[in-house]
Design brief:
By secondary structure, the chain is mostly helical. The chain has a domain of 56 residues. The protein is 65% helix and 0% strand. The mean pLDDT is 88.
Length: 82
């Protein structure tokens, strides 16, 4: 006799199954998960190392705001190199 129960996968089981998917399906899954966070207005916290890099770059920009190049110029250079 079959019992009627729902097996709830653990996070480890779910991750293991997801990692076995073909690359295209993993990308679709990642996109769906990311979009679900956006719909819920959830912004995952940045790791400490990323915050330090951003703080450093902001401080460098504040110290010398006229250095660097505007995005349209950089984008044009990138596209020209392709």
């Amino acid at each position: 006799m079959l019992t009627n129960y729902a097996h709830r996968m653990t996070k480890a089981e779910l991750q293991s199954k997801a990692l076995k998917l073909p690359i295209a399906e993993r990308l679709e899954l990642a996109e769906a998960l990311w979009e679900s966070l956006e719909r819920e207005s959830v912004q995952p916290p940045l790791p400490t190392w990323q915050c330090k890099i951003l703080d450093q770059r902001l401080a460098e920009d504040d110290a010398a705001p006229d250095t660097g190049s505007p995005w349209p110029e950089i984008k044009q250079k990138i596209l020209a190199s392709l």
